[in-house]
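Hi everyone, sorry if this is the wrong subforum. Our group has a chain we'd like a structural model of before ordering constructs, and none of us has done structure prediction before. Sequence below.
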Amino acid sequence: MVGTRSNPKIIGILGGMGPLATIELERRIVLYNTEARKDQDHVPMIVINDPRVPDRTAYILGEGPDPRPKLIEGLRKLEACGVDMIFIPCNTAHAFYDDLRRATKLPIYHMPYRAIQEASKLGKRIFLLATLGTYLADVYGKTASRIGGVEILYPPNNVRELVMDVIYGGVKSGRDVPEENIKNIVSLLKDVEVIILGCTELSVLKEKFKKYVSVIDPLDVAAYDAIKFSRGEISEKELILK
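Answer:
Right subforum, don't worry. Here is the predicted structure as tokens:
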């Protein structure tokens, strides 16, 4: 059954990676639904915000436990709640996308896929800012190759380390990130046309990045897509990576 405004589809959010990013996606789905005039006009959501999921980057680097069992446990809970599509507000977790899809009959939204599609409208030199795990697993590079016609550029190692410090030393730790840190990161990128904020912790800093460069925030794309899917304005086939 296709969702409608009067009978919307239920969005499941498999979160906790990190907790603030999960809340931010939920907040944006509510905020961007500008046509809502009463509670009943909003998108129904079931949210699991479980920070006990093992760190995805640590596992990819060979330094921590496998997060997939905990992720699949979350999928089972969302299945039991009767959701219609699952959103995972963690870019690095999409390294396990194919495994997670095999673990459920429910469609799983592919956030990097949709972010690349939107970024390609703004430029062809697309730089990715992300965790070391996302780079090592080549989440965006592999996705781009499956789409075709677009290239994802990775920044040099010194920039990657600065980004990791912003993610782990700043947002995940609950500390403020000075704007000078953001400006420094952008200044080290050459001939950049558009940046994908390929970590949902960076999404929290979107407004600071936008002062210096064109930005695609996957969390923004996901929020708008969740609203449209719930209303039946976009099909699940347009939101998943085959």
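For your construct planning: The radius of gyration is 17 Å. The beta strands are 11-15, 45-49, 85-87, 125-129, 151-153, 194-197, 215-216.
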